[in-house]
Amino acid sequence: GTTDTACHHYDTFLREANVPQGDSSASATFCQAGGSLRLSKAEDFSVQRQLCAGYFAGSEELHASCADSGGPLLAWVNEHWVQVGIDSWSYKPPYPEVYTKVSAYRDWITNTSKLLKAEGSRVSPPRKK
Question: Which part of the chain is the Peptidase S1 domain (predicted)?
């Protein structure tokens, strides 16, 4: 997020919002359809590796900002919070946010975590192929 040179304001408060997510939400339908012809990143959306969440219009407070990249998208599953996404990029308001789908990288996350735990913090994580 902080590498985005277009970002001129960084919030100093941690915020949270309830946003629609899931394959049946309007935002998922929008992203899976490739967005709109006027959206430059529409062709970059991958149903297998990404998910959409958020609103089409409304308050900016309910939309991730340019400094929120890397932040979590959580879902309440079986009585506990599960991280299902990592904030990646946006079509910009009033369009939904695009998140990296954690489940698509679960094996890499598990293997890398085991390696780092076994080797200590001296080892850099392997790159995903």
Answer: 1-114
